[in-house]
Amino acid sequence: MTTLKSKLKEDLHTAMKARDELTSSTLRLTLTAISKEEVSGTSARELSDDEVQKVIAKEAKKRREAAEAFAQGGRTEQAEREKAEGAVLDGYLPKQLTDDELNTIVASAVEEAKAAGAEGPRAMGAVMKIVNPKVAGLAEGGRVAAAVKKLLAG
Q: How many whole angstroms separate alpha carbon 141 and alpha carbon 137?
């Protein structure tokens, strides 16, 4: 069992003992998503820590999107619940890049792409190929794409 998955299970056990309903339900759902990912495909397999982290990031993104949808629908109580669940999951993810750090990485990638001959808005794909490996797991794809578009637009 991977270390991240075992940490989730230990934390679930601790949350259940402490009768922390929010944390225990969030971790149960996340462990279920991990198990589902392990058995998807042609054969069952054990996920690596990186793959487990991707599943956790996907679950956290779902919580943010749901919180936004509930807030727009005027259901503040459910929105707060989703935000709290997202906060629990964020504790298992690496610290996200700040906007300044992200812009610095994107700016260097834009310069690198320009040196290779790619310019203007059409260089988006070339820049994203350079940026994505550097920010994998540290910034959400939408944020990265927005930063790249902003810098390419001028």
A: 9
* Coil, helix or strand at residue 12: helix
Residues 6+ apart with CB under 8 A from 86: 60, 63, 64, 67
Exposed / middle / buried, residue 67 (Cβ in 10 Å: 0-12, 13-18, 19+) = buried
The kind and range of the H/E element at 52 are helix 49-72
List Cβ neighbours of 130 (8 Å cut-off, separation of 6 or more): 109, 112, 113
Q: What's the pTM value of the predicted model, to 2 decimals?
A: 0.74
pLDDT category, 75, cuts 50, 70, 90? very high
pLDDT band at 29; cut points 50, 70, 90 = very high
Q: How many CB atoms lie within 10 A of CB 90?
A: 16
